[in-house]
Design brief:
Length: 446
Amino acid sequence: MRKKLSIAAIVTGVLLLTACAAGNGQSQSAGNARGSGGQEEAQSGEQNEASGETSKEMQGKIPGEEAELKGELTILSWFPNAEFTWEAVIEAFTKEHPGVTITVDCPKEQEMYFENYATKIMSGEGYDIVQEADFASSQKGWDELGLFADLYEFMESDENFHKEDYFSCIYGPMETDGKLYSFLRNAAPVYIRMNKRLLEQAEVEYDKETINFDELYEIYEKVREKCGEKIYLTEDAYYNPMSVYEETYYVQNNLLDTDEYEEYLRKNHAMCYETEKRNVYSEFGQGIASDVLCRVLGINLQSADLVNDIFNGTEDFTPAISYVSMHGERYLASTNSLSISSFSENKALAWEFLKFVVGNYNVDYRDAGFLPPNKERTTAKCEGVEPEIREKLFQDIEAINAACSVNINLSRNLEVILEDYYINNTLTAEECRKQMADRVYLYMNE
């Protein structure tokens, strides 16, 4: 059961665990089993629940209406010092609509993201668009707070927007109580590539198109038996990146204090870990270290040749295998998204800009490898990708049925317990599970 948060709790920072596909379409840090994310609501002339004031008339074009766009928009960016990631899309949008001015607030540090957001809320203003506001979609009670706009309302009233033009995973997995507070920018599935040489050495074969944690753990144990104890599951060797996909389920379904979760903790703890993260990815690039079993990634479309290699396999890697959680969820690799603030006086204009960012336009962020949610745009970006691979990629995108989410404040509380268990070895699996359950209960009921 998810907690209904107070404004005070919100502004200190509720985040979705984001795992943005990085560098050359390969490695994806799934985030510490422990936190990141954002959300919203709106409509002209209606009472604004979050500010207690009646919304002013929305400026700009009404969805579906052909009119000149005018007005100013402000964007709160999650990524520090990342103004350059917005330059191309803002330039293209304002060139088409010269009456629009757009400014981006890129905090110097991620902690300032929360401070800036809180300051705006407390002043009764807020930003027009919030990046990574999808963290809010992980929390029930946001509808009552009314901080973000339900984007379904804009979609339904906009005759130029067609839901079928977009992958279905941007709707259901991102919903909260039937409302959509965030528009996904990256529709990438989660994949595993295993170290082919280690598998050959251990005489292990795996030819399925999907893999879950239990299957991966079984392979890991066989490899360690043949290749030595000091084999790491993934490259940073500090934690199991798949934990974010498994622990989200246990937290959200209140199943931490169960034998099933304890068994999962035991398996996870049996893996080989270091007390600090290793930085071996930058050293091996397209290859993989000899003591690492697999790489977790979100597909990046910057290079068609690289995508083909990822799915066909290389000398170092098996072909990409879709990761499925132990409970059947197919997660988004990244929840990078945009939301419209209910504090915005330019909601209609914000919607037009949001459509421009995620729609079928030949304009990208500098994060050019993202898999756009618009089908035609992703098809165009797949030029050079083998037809069979493109078909599989699209099938895997459509199979996504879950977004990974955890409250960052809660995750930081849990991180202390998990480190005592995994790294410091001061807790048993039973003690860890009970402390985790107690901490979540206290947090949800404080």
